[in-house]
Amino acid sequence: MYERALVPTLKRSRKSLLLLGPRQVGKSTLLRSLGPDRIIDLSFPSEFRTYLGRPETLEHELLAAGPDVRTVLIDEVQKVPELLDVAQAFLDREPKRFRFLFSGSSARKLRRGGANLLPGRIHLHFLHPLLASELGDAFHLDRVLAEGSLPGIYSEVDADTRATDLRSYVDAYLREEVQAEALVRNLGGYIRLLELVAASSGHILNLNSLCKDAGVGYETARRYLEVLEDTLIVTRIPAWSGSDRAQLISHPKLFLFDLGVRNALLRRPTDRPLEDERGLLLEHLVAYELHRRTTSLWPQARLFHYRTRNGAEVDFVLEIGRELWAIEVKSGERAPETEPSGIRSLADRTTRLKRKIVVFLGSRAQKIGDVECLPLLQFLDQLP
Questions:
Q1: How do residues 199-211 score in pLDDT, each as one tens digit?
Q2: CB contact burial 120-138 (16+ within 10 A = b; e otherwise)
Q3: Residue 57 belongs to a domain
Q4: Interstrand relation of 371-375 and 366-368 (parallel, antiparallel or unpaired)
Q5: pTM of the prediction?
Q6: Per-residue DSSP letters for 257-290?
Q7: Total domain count for the chain?
């Protein structure tokens, strides 16, 4: 089992929590490691039918529970969102009696079911595929660029099985379950859009182009994309705006949540990264490492990208309070000889830029003027 960076935070707190994340990122494993006294797993058909038909069953069971039952885990709570209302009643009536641990893979289903997300009573956390630090000595750059870092797939010893598992994940989950949730009528259009989203991963979102290429209407494409975001399959990294917005691109960048899933969707090899995509894949990896921290581990940080209408760009802009970091990602082993033009453009627009960072694949850090050129793992070691 991989040691997840979120575990110490969850162990320190006695608050109830909702842990959201895509399927197979390890939510159940993490929450079970907290030692719940009672587990309700709604992925089992019998459990699901019991609580779907009579959500008040949970209330009756908890009223009858002895003092040794303190922590209650409810897995896949989006399947029966009404159980959150039962939990709220107990948290309001006896706030110190129970601690509830909920997991879910779809914020959309929770909202659509009218779920009460218990503001003030419950902490919301997100879990993603594995960070490089969570992989530890098992981290191998080319493997992560090709196969991604879903825990169950990465830990599989046999390479052929890992490839089969990735294809199965794409077919069984992304195509069927997300399709069913979206109430998709145009299956062909949905699948084309899904593949186009994978191909657009790492690029600035152009929804008009996506819906045209997929052969679906704008509103349909927008709704499908919203479903992918709500199920945490896709994330948007917004554009940094600053004060001179007229000169800046305002569209977000789109990222699929895992490189292995992206490669399987696009029928890329999953045993090695394609050399002509190495730069794009490395940018994905850094995006994931930053995004996965800002959602739970580094809440004071916000992630953006930067691009002007004249084409100057910075891969990532990290905002930490009033401080900005500009982060460029290079797939070569040599550091740049001069300050990248995109970083220089951003520096001309704001006095808040405190760190200029180039992440590259060299073995030793270098300093070019006030630009820090950091090897990938050394950069990642500096993050929370």
A1: 999 999 998 898 8
A2: ebbeebbbbbbbbbbbeee
A3: yes
A4: antiparallel
A5: 0.91
A6: S-HHHHHHHTT--SSS--GGGHHHHHHHHHHHHH
A7: 2
pLDDT in tens, 69-95: 999 999 999 889 899 989 988 998 988
Spatial CA neighbour of 286 closest among 66, 100, 95, 131:
131
Provide CB contacts within 8 A for 19, sequence distance 6+.
27, 30, 31, 101, 102, 103, 104, 125, 126, 127
- Residue 3's pLDDT is 92
Window from 53-57, 226-230, 329-333, 368-372 with minimum mean pLDDT: 226-230
Domain-embedded: residue 228: yes
The structure tokens listed for 95 are 């706030």
If asked whether residues 165 and 314 sit together in one domain, one would say yes
Beta bridge partners of 374: 359
- Residues 23 and 108: beta-carbon distance below 8 Å: no
Same domain, 138 and 114: no
What is the maximal distance between C-alpha atoms in the chain?
A: 70
- For the cut 80, the answer to whether the pLDDT of residue 180 exceeds it is no
User: Where is average pLDDT lowest: 66-70, 294-298, 311-315?
Assistant: 294-298
Residues 112 and 193 in one domain: no
Q: Are 260 and 349 part of one and the same domain?
A: yes
Structure token digits, residue 193: 């859009």
- Asked if residues 178 and 227 have their Cβ atoms less than 8 Å apart, the reply is yes
Please list, residue by residue across 252-267, b when 16 or more beta carbons sit within 10 angstroms of its beta carbon and e when fewer do: ebbbbbbbbbbbbbbe
Residues near 150 by beta carbon (within 8 Å), at least 6 away in sequence: 24, 25, 129, 130, 169, 258, 260, 261
Parallel, antiparallel or unpaired: strands 353-360 and 366-368 = unpaired
The answer as to whether 117 is a domain residue is: yes
- Two tokens at 243? 């004060």
The answer to whether residues 293 and 369 belong to one domain is yes
CB 236 within 8 A of CB 253: yes
The whole-angstrom separation of Cα 178 and Cα 171 is 10
